Task: structure prediction
Amino acid sequence: MSITVQINPARRIGQRSPLLYGHFIEHFHRQIYDGIYQPGHPLSDEDGFRTDILDAMRRIKVPIMRWPGGCFVSAYHWKDAVGPNRNPMFDKAWRVEDPNTFGTDEFVKMCRKIGCEPYICTNAGTGTAEEMSDWVEYCNLDTEGKFAKWRIANGFETPHNVKYWSIGNENYGFWEIGAKTTEEWGVLVRESAKMMRHVDPTAELSAAALSDPSWNLNLLKLCGENLDWISIHEYWDMMPEVNAPSAYEQCMAFTDRIDHSVHEVRGMLAALKLDGRIKIAFDEWNLRSWHHPNVHTIRQGVGKESYVTPRDKNDDNSTYTMADAVFTACFLNAMHRHCDIVGMANFAPILNTRGCIYSHDKGIVLRSTYHVFDLFVNHLGDTVVDLWPETALPTMTVRHKQGHSVTIDSLDLLATTYSDKPGMAVAAVNKEPDKTHTITLPLGGKTQVILHTINGENKDSYNDVDLDGVRTAKTDLGVHESAAEIALEPHSVNLIELIPVED
Ligand code: AHR
Result:
């Protein structure tokens, strides 16, 4: 039985920012070194960037890239990584040496090659307000002061014009170097924002936050009027210590209330009357956390082999399945529905680790999640409009990782229009592991219907060096007049283009 879906393109929910399709790259494992930045590699350009990876990033129109961390940043000093004399540092967050050959100038150069906005997360762990504002001087002042002059001496005459800055990363967490108390945090953010804005009044500032009121309230009371963004992070399938990816059905349980953090922060901002001016930057999100055991511990006797080697398990491409793709589509749909207050989201990370692109010495693998970005960025509209099913959506009951059962909608549907052309695009996700569902879309006249489907033979399909287990199929369903009935395969991500046909 087909589910009839109504769409009212006149009822606009909002215009989504392209920054919803943002990404994050950190100095961790093979994201930067032996990742995007490999000077001298046969596939690298004259600046040392892997051209195959840059091409893949350009194809999904990466709009903004957050860097350099993540936990890494909370003991990072940017001045060690600019200029001709780079000294290696011991990265106290991830407990490995960082050569510092990739720094601010290389990051901005990479962003210009990709065509994305650079977004710098500053060190609010061991760093200071002065160090943060010096960084803004280096990047954004023309010639005034020693740091702008230093940038010029390093070969960058014109300012880098870094517009987006975050004060700190997860400074609320015991695992973060230089973790702060709630009281300390509000004062540090206020003083940092003050100095950063005194350097560049146009800078857009965010601060590390939570959906937890006790952390945010002091921050927002002391500094709310100086912030443009509030940063939140979420990973659902937590695997930092034990590399045990949840099975497909358990991952579908994670889609239940996938936007709970947004609701909580939205409520807090509204209560403080800040929801008109502060937007949410969901600037780290992914279904699954990164695997990095034994690193966030101060236990004695923990050997290097117990916390460095296991990171290679993130490179197991078989753990990037249709569960990752289905979850990613549901998350992006949810952020579109909240596009009035969620202005940015950053997939964590873009490359290697749990990224949507995997790189190896001879090339890259586009993991299942990459195809969701490729499909949504290149075919979904920028205006979210109202959609509702005429009858209740089918549901499925799945067991959560914590053991309880949860009943969720089997389908996740989002309707969009385009601000620059006629027509509509509907994102339709079928979470069922083995059941096809059919939807009927009423049409207002002659319409060409194109169906794009991301899927594999089964729910655990994946892509690897010599395996194309997950593909995007495009099917022209022809011209329809009054309605179009579309079958949504099990465990699939679909995008339906509705293109008006002139008589
Ligand atoms: O697992 C990676 C870490 O997750 C990031 O460095 C940090 O921001 C988050 O806790």
